[in-house]
Amino acid sequence: MSGDVRLKIENVSKTFARLGKPSVEALRSIDLSITEGEFLAIVGASGSGKSTLLRIVDGLLAPSNGSVKVDGVPVRSPGRDRAMVFQQDALLPWKTVIQNVAYGLTLAHVPKPEAAKTAQRFINLAGLRGFEHHYPHQLSGGMRQRVNVARALAVDPKILLLDEPFAALDAQTREIMQTELMSIWQETRKTVVLITHQIDEAVFLADRVVVFSARPGTIRDQVKIDLPRPRSLELKRKVEFVSLVDRIWKMIETEVRASLEQNA
Amino acid sequence: MQEPSALRKILDVLEQDGRMAATARVAISAVCVIAVWQLVTLFVTNRLVLVPPIDVARALVREANDGAMWTNAVATVTAVGISFVVSVAIGVLLGLSLASSRALSLTAGPLLAALNSVPIIALAPLFIAWLGLGFASKFVLVLLVAVFPVVVTTETGLRATDRQLIEAARSFNATNLQVFTTVTFPFALPFIVSGIRVAWARALVGIVVAEFFGSFAGFGFAILSASQTFDTARVLAYVFLLGAMGLLGTMLFETLEHRLAPWRHE
Fold first, then answer.
1. Residues A242, A236: Cα–Cα separation, whole Å
2. I want to staple B218 with a disulfide (CB 3.0 to 4.6 A). Which of A82, B32, B53, B75 is the partner?
């Protein structure tokens, strides 16, 4: 792993203008540097602008201020160097698993045989072998998220963006998916930015956890996670792990209370 | 546990999903209709009012043998076919433009809704006065009744597209055209087909009315002339043919809808 900065987020702010209503400040002056191959998790109360930041990094939203750079090149629109894994139901229901995984490649006009070959590789990696010709509605929630991850990886991005990828899954499936994501990451060594509500998920997966404040989102704190890799689910019962989760929860707690009062 | 009754067993078989059960259901309802019809003709003996099913079948055979049915079929099917296909094309195009421009939708939408609620069929005599007895008046009448369901469902389908799917496509750097061809249009397609299904039924009504008012061939013309000679069997024979056309179209478009969007039906 080299220490080169892969993703640089400089002074990013975002304010949403709303017709006839006061505008909403979602993000204020976010500065973050993420090195090549790093797994970064962002946690925070809901409405803290985490997802907004991820969409700005992906190029789906333009920041009101500041800039995002991938390998020094400013981001202006979505591109193949970044790929996003959405919460759920972002698969095309009329396409099979293999067609969904190849979707990004098809859009980029990669020739069909090559796209199918690449898609097959990531289907195998995501443990979807045998389900190539199933449709999303024939799969469980966990399987669908594997397809989502495989689709994002298939375009071979430098940075993988995960927007609460397991939020819609039940607790047990979520744990399994976390270990699977971990082993996929270990194999591909992508730079990852993960947004999550689950503090234990963030600590379990990430090298560094960034804690966002309530609206407007700012970086409240950063916690380096030095737990040894490879990590297994047993780690979640170890004292070091639990105390890290606890520390981060205490930071978030005040923010959650603040945001509860905001919304009251 | 009580043994299920014989009736319950038969109902269980009929309530199944398969093709066999569906065919059996259709067969049973057809037999019931014919039986009731036959029964009623035993009491209603005025043959100007009602004829038994067998007379209608005989009339069908007679019409088929002397060629009148084919002349009428060619006239009706070509007229309704051409007008229907053009209505669908225009309907989809109008729906597309309404869905692509909010301003247009807000401006033209109420006008279209108003037009849609006018019983256009009532204007048939006027169209015939304007456009004559030929193809043109039939075409315009069918177009005006059949186009609206397609416009409405096309716009609805395009607008109903899941935002998440569009965002995912954008995230993969899709162009506007790619978002349309790979996301919004496939999403809208089953909606459009359901509009087409309704349009087909309305097109049949349109063509018959147009033929009532002014034509020299076609099912509508045949029904009108048969009723003027009090030939009830022939009237019903042609009604039966129209019903078959309607049913075939509906079945075809329903199958298509299921094929295009299997995820909605499971």
1. 7
2. B75
CB within 8 A of A3, min separation 6: which ones? A35, A36
Residue A260 forms contact with B (CB below 8 Å): no
Report the b/e string of A138-175 with b at 16+ CB within 10 A. ebeebbbbbbbbbbbbbbebbbbbbbbbbeebeeebbb
**A254 CA to centre of own chain:** 24
Tell me which chain B residues have a C-beta less than 8 angstroms from the C-beta of A107.
Answer: 169, 172-174, 178, 182
* Residues B171, A58: C-beta atoms closer than 8 Å: yes
Over residues A196-212, the pLDDT tens digits come to 988 999 999 999 999 98
pLDDT in tens, A128-167: 888 989 999 998 888 898 899 889 988 889 999 999 988 8
CB contact A54 to B (< 8 Å): no
Structure tokens belonging to residue B31: 């037999």
Mean pLDDT of A102-116: 90
Question: Which among A203, A85, A220 has a CA at the least distance from the CA of A144?
Answer: A85
- What gap in Å lies between CA A180 and CA A214, rounded to an integer? 31
Share of chain B above pLDDT 70, in %: 98
* Residue among B172, B177, B182, B185 with most chain A CBs within 10 A, to mutate: B172
3-state secondary structure of B3: coil
State which residue of chain B sits closest to A79, comparing Cα positions: B173
- pTM for this entry: 0.81
List of chain A residues whose C-beta atoms are within 8 Å of the C-beta of residue B172 = 78, 83, 103-104, 107-108, 155
Q: Whole-angstrom Cα distance, residue A219 to residue A209?
A: 11
**Does B165 sit within 8 Å of A92, measured CB to CB?**
yes
Say yes or no for a CB contact (<8 Å) between A89 and B263: no
Residue A1: per-residue pLDDT: 45
Cβ pair B170:A60 closer than 8 A: yes
Using a CB-CB cut-off of 8 Å, the residues of chain B touching A193 are none
> Do the Cβ atoms of B263 and A92 come within 8 Å?
no
CA–CA gap between residue B148 and residue B113 (Å, rounded): 9
pLDDT score, position A186: 87
| Beta carbons of A107 and B183 less than 8 Å apart | no
Burial degree of A218 (CB within 10 A; 0-12, 13-18, 19+): middle
The answer to whether A89 contacts B162, with C-beta atoms less than 8 Å apart, is yes
pLDDT tens profile B105-163: 888 888 888 888 888 888 888 888 888 888 888 899 999 999 999 999 999 999 988 88
Query: What's the pLDDT at A225?
Result: 87
A222, A213 Cβ separation under 8 angstroms: no
